[in-house]
Amino acid sequence: MTSKKEAPVTVPETHRTEPISIEHEMKTSFINYAMSVIISRAIPDVRDGLKPVHRRSLYGMWDMGNTSDKPTRKSARVVGDVMGKYHPHGDASIYDTIVKMAQPFSYRHMLVQGQGNFGSIDGDSAAASRYTEVRLYPYAEALLEDLDKETVEFKPNYDESLQEPTVLPAKIPNLLVNGTDGIAVGMATKMPPHNLKEVCSAVEAYLDNPEVSVEDLLRIMPGPDFPTGGILMGVEGVKNIYSTGQGRVIVRGVAEIEESEGGNRGDRIIVTELPYQVNKAQWIGGIAEMVKDKKIDGISDIRDESDKEGIRVVFELRKGTMAPVILNNLYKNTALESSFWTSNLAIVDGQPKVLNLHGLLGHFVQHRIEVIRRRSEFDLKKAQEKVHILNGLLIALSKIDAIIKAIRASDTVDNARNALIAQFGLDEPQANAILQMQLRRLAALEQKKITDEKNDLEAEIRRLEKILESEANIKDVIRQETAAVAEKFGDKRRTQIALDTSELSTEDLIEDKAVLVSITSANYIKRMDIDTYRKQRRGGHGITGMTTKEEDLVDSVFTASMKDYLLCFTNNGRVYWLKVYQIPESSRIAKGKPIVNLLNLKDEVVTTVIPIREFRADQYLIFATKLGQTIKIQLDEFSNPRSTGTNAIRLKDNDRLVDVILTGGNNELILTSRFGQSLRFHEDFIRIVGRNAQGVRGMKLKGDDTIVAITLLEKDHLLTISDVGFGKRSEFDEFRGHGRGTMGVRNMLLERDAVVIESRAVLDTDEIIAMTASGIVIRIPVSEFRIIGRGTKGVRVMKLDEKDKVVGIAVVSAEMASGNGNGDGEAGKPEE
Asked: Could you tell me the keywords of this UniProt record (predicted)?
């Protein structure tokens, strides 16, 4: 057998291979994939706020006549129609999209009206598409309106058998109203919903002034408006989002405490609203686990009483449990308080961009300008064509006999048309309209209708031409339509705004008790229980109250209640706000925490601290400076805490603030200097001024003397303490009144180099806590001090070690000493 020679194999040209770089191919393929996900799947268009699957679902329902005025249709039919015509990516993504657009807890304004089981806030899934029915909501139809007037571009669908819109006309700024979220490749979008009326007002504000400030927009749109309600904690986060397009807001659920009646059971906490996108069932389950693990103590039972009317979750508390504490634990440790992170990422001209509020409003307005321009051009063209036809009909009616004769003389329709065009000056559309005209239109009434219709169309043409004359006229139309949308679909805000987050703070967890606060010359601060120091008799050695560095000395000490505000005044006349409970509690011998870690100080030190419970308009602060100036300012001038502090008073060169007191406005004062002089005068001699004033001279000083204290003539006696450990009580009558700006009279006889460090009005039932520069503290009843005349040395307060000195005292009232005080404390003053 002879073998045949095999012919060589020829590789077709289409099967040839070419070497490529795998790195280049991976980069190119990944970028193409990423852009496809970003543009065609995950990120919404800035103009209508929709992703392609949402847009195709709504357009598919609109195209098949599944509108709000028609009966609902099976979801499976809608899903199949959308998938077969526009979105060939599986039925699951389409049905999930339709379900979410029909959930009142997901969308602020639903786009789809559902009939059947569409899931719940507990995370329950919707029923299968064969069991549910849907149709468009009127709100969604406002997005689709004018789609048939060439207002937007269309493109071929996936198999080029049909056309689909690239964007919807969108009368409503849907991206802001309903928000959105989506995860693409390397980027994500997450936007909160807002109130429709507020958004429409913001659009109008932008139309009036494209440079409108964020602050003005914030007054119109104070923040997101979630479908599940809740409480928005503060507006700083909202302002950041409006300014930059990114940021975070804190949302709390709405809860109320129901107190028990008669004490037979514990109180209740009833939650009626949850933060947006919180799964209620998972939230309750998580709390149950915390109760079981003792992470939250005091809850005896949890009941979910929610129904179609709304959320109602009841927490039964054990008898004797503090409900505010439990509620704050729920806020702190569960999703009852949640963060909503925002990234305003949207597709702009085919590219993903992060937009601030100006950008979102601006792109929507530009889209509406284009839509209204194209719609007006379309309507104008149609109106002009219609008028042209009516003119032909009117010509025919005016020459009806000749028209009929010409038509009867023609043997075909084409000949009749040509005869009309040739004999009567008509064009082809007019001739066709005459040939199609019904005999009933020959009636006189029908002729009038044609004339009236022509007049109406000509008026409409003039209106449309006026709109197209300028962009300003188009903007007027946007204003009108936006206002109509707000009126038709708008409703009340659901999410409350807590402008001051302290309204719902964790202060309920704090025991409001009296404490002792001390500050060193290096500005270390600490707080301690008053009971840390037991009472001693006058003349004792005291106990160690603070361990300080060798170069650091205790500067002042005062009492306050845990929930008081501390007005911290610095040497250069600025004021800072601090809550007492924000000061770390320390042991008796600890040095405390640097105050710069608690306040935003700027090359300054705190010299005076005033505890304040409430900022009343009928109370005043009187300031005393080292060089004798006095300033009187209404207390409520300091009622707006600022984290960066603010100017309280204005100081002359080489002067500094040394003391501040709180007054009711009708008191006498005593200014005391370090060399033992005291001046008594009425506060009416100091006029009331605003913050940052320089004030007037309070006391005339001699030589190197300086002011160390200012106090009110109230209570029983004036207590004066020197730095060498002597003190005394004096009758107020010992100090006769002098005019403001004089030198006053001798208060205390001082040893060589000794100075007065404090002069304070006290009750005979008060106690004082005195502290030395080395941190030694003694607590003494005021009654231990003899009542003696002015100009005397006094009695020994405490025995001092060599070179140690008393630097400050705190006055403790009997109420404070019992632990029940919640009023304003008094501050001890520093040594000069």
From this structure: ATP-binding, Coiled coil, Cytoplasm, DNA-binding, Isomerase, Nucleotide-binding, Topoisomerase
